[in-house]
Amino acid sequence: MEKILLLETGETFYGEAFGATKEVIGEVVFSTGMTGYQESLTDQSYNGQMLTFTFPLIGNYGVNADDFESVDPTVKAIICREVARFPSNWRSKMSLDDFLVEYDIPGIKHIDTRQLTKTIRSHGTMKASLLNEGTDIEAALATLRATELPTDQVSQVSTKTRYVNPNAGKNVVVVDFGLKHSILRELNKRECNVTVVPYDTTAQEILRLAPDGVMLTNGPGDPTSIPESLDMIREIQGKIPLFGICLGHQLLCLANGGETFKMKFGHRGFNHPVRELATGRIDFTSQNHGYAVDAASIANTDLEITHIEINDETVEGVRHKTLPAFSVQYHPDAAPGPHDADHLFDRFIDLMENNKNLEGTI
Q1: Quick check: is 331 catalytic?
Q2: What is the pairing mode between strands 49-53 and 24-31?
Q3: What's the CATH number where 72 sits?
Q4: Nearest of 309, 349, 350, 304 to residue 327 by alpha carbon
Q5: Catalytic choice (249, 267, 320, 331)
Q6: Within this chain, do residues 65 and 196 fall inside the same structural domain, yes or no?
C-alpha cells in the first residue's frame, strides 16, 4: 500500500506503508544512528515525533525482549529507506514490521531519507502528516497547518505511580520525566536502591523517602512546559545530591536561573563528540534532544559550564558552584550508543558518598 509523508512546507514524499495503517500527525525529526533502532523506538523522548532513520537499512536484527527502553513506546511514526524483510539474530523475537503492528505505530519506507534530512536541516524540525493513498493532499495540508501539537508530553510518558527497584546500596530517587530503562540498569549495576516517582512529585514527598541522591531523567518536549518541577529542584538541591540527564539537565539549569531555546533540528544520534572543559577529555555520546541551554544565560547563575558539544559548541554539561549538583545534556547510559561517558554514574555515587561523609562531621 502506498503511503505519503506530507510536510507542513507542502513537500511530499511517496513511499510504501509498513507497520500500522493509521494516519498520524507529529513532528518529523532525524537520527544519525547506524544501529539501535529498537532502543530509539522505545525512547520516550521521541514522544509524538516521526523518527527518520538516516542509515539506509533498519530491522536487520529484528526486535528482542531485552532492548526495550520503555514498556509502551509513544513514537508517532517511523520513516526509513529500507526495512529488512528477513531479520536474523539469535535474540530476535519478532520483525520490526510485526513490532510496529503490535504497538499500532505506522511506518513509511522506500523514500529518499537523504533528501528529507536535508530538508529538515534547511527548514528545521516541522510538523508532518503520514497519509494513506487516496487522501486529499490539499485538505490534509490545511489540517496539518492548523493542528497544534500537544505540550503535555511529560505527563503522557511519566509513571503515574511510585515503584521500587530494590537493592542494598545507595538510596536513589529517580524522578521520571520519560526515563529510559538503561538509566535504571546503570544504577542497578552500582547496587543502588531505586525508587522511581512521577514527574510532579513534590520536594517534601521526595525528602520523605530519605534519599542519598536524586536523579532527574530524560524526557520529551519543551522543559518550560513543566514549571512545577523547578520548585521541586530548588527545594532539594541544597539538601540532597542531584544528577540530571538530558531534560533533567535543562530543568536543573532553568531552576537556577538559566534559559533554554529550541534548536533548529536538534541532536539525535550516537556519535556526538563532547569535550569536558576542565580536562580536555573528549567522549563520543548518545544524544536525543530538540532543546538546549543558552550558554550566555549561565553566566550570572550559580552554575558553571563543564561540557560543550564540539561541533556547535552548545552546552552539554553544568555543575553547581557550591552545591552537590551536576547534569549533562547527553545520555551517559548510552542505549544505544558508545559507553564513553558511563563513568558519570560513578561520579554520582562518589558525590552521594562524599555528601554522606560531610553529614557525619556536622
Answers
A1: yes
A2: parallel
A3: 3.50.30.20
A4: 304
A5: 331
A6: no
Q: Cell digits for 105? A: 505505530
| 179 shares its domain with 275 | yes
Residues 165 and 310 in one domain: yes
Q: Verify that 203 and 79 share a domain, yes or no.
A: no
Total domains, the chain: 2
Give me the pLDDT at residue 114, please: 97
Q: Could you read off the pLDDT of 297-338 as tens digits, one per residue? A: 999 999 999 999 999 999 999 999 999 999 999 999 988 888
For residue 59, give the C-alpha cell: 530491522
**Residue-range definition of the domain harbouring residue 322:** 157-361
Asked if 75 and 175 sit in the same domain, the reply is no
Domain end, chosen from 149, 167, 184, is at 149
138: phi then psi, degrees, rounded to nearest 5: -60, -45
pLDDT tens per residue, range 3-39: 999 999 999 999 999 999 999 999 999 999 889 999 9
Q: Would you list which residues are annotated within the binding site for L-glutamine?
A: 45, 219, 221, 247, 250, 288, 290-291
Predicted TM-score (pTM) of this structure? 0.95
> Last residue of some domain: 94, 122, 149?
149
Grid cell of 25 as nine digits = 500527525
Q: CATH number of the domain at 220, please.
A: 3.40.50.880
Residue pLDDT, tens place only, 63-78: 999 999 999 999 999 9
Q: Are 217 and 243 in contact (CB under 8 A)?
A: no
Cα 56 to Cα 101: distance, rounded to the nearest angstrom: 21
Residues annotated within the binding site are 45, 219, 221, 247, 250, 288, 290-291
Write down the catalytic residue from 176, 246, 249, 267. 246
Length of the chain: 362
Cβ atoms of 42 and 164 within 8 Å: the answer is no
